[in-house]
Amino acid sequence: PMADNYLLYRVKHALRRPDMPESMTQELADLIDAALADLKQAGVSNMDTADPLIRRAVITYCRANFWPGDDYAQLKASYDEQKAQLRMTTNYTDWPDA
Fold first, then answer.
1. Beta carbons within 10 angstroms of residue 84's beta carbon
2. At 4, which helix (H) or strand (E)?
3. Are the C-beta atoms of 57 and 85 separated by less than 8 Å?
């Protein structure tokens, strides 16, 4: 798993669930891993979870997918936009400079 404790802590607080039970914490850790894997699959190579843009994308992914609600489509679109911006930024990819 790629989810570190600090990122897990930050996501729990972003979801307004800092005291979630262990069973839910494991599900959230799996979602964090899925978000990071999705970014990597999209070509994002900078997986520094202390980076605010990476952290924000992971939080948005988790907000969309952890108990999806009426705002799922909006959060999914927001995540997709964040992912697209990261993919096009030199500091976040291994693409050669043009």
1. 11
2. none
3. no
Tokens 């990476």, residue located: 54
- Number of Cβ within 10 Å of residue 1's Cβ equals 10
| Assigned token pair, 97 | 């400079």
pLDDT, tens digit, 9 for 90 and up, residues 49-92: 999 999 999 999 999 999 888 999 999 999 999 999 999 988 89
Tokens of 16: 């307004």
Question: Hey, what amino acid is at 88?
Answer: M
Question: d(Cα 24, Cα 88) in Å, to the nearest integer?
Answer: 34
Per-residue pLDDT at 98 exceeds 60: no
More confident residue, 97 or 6: 6
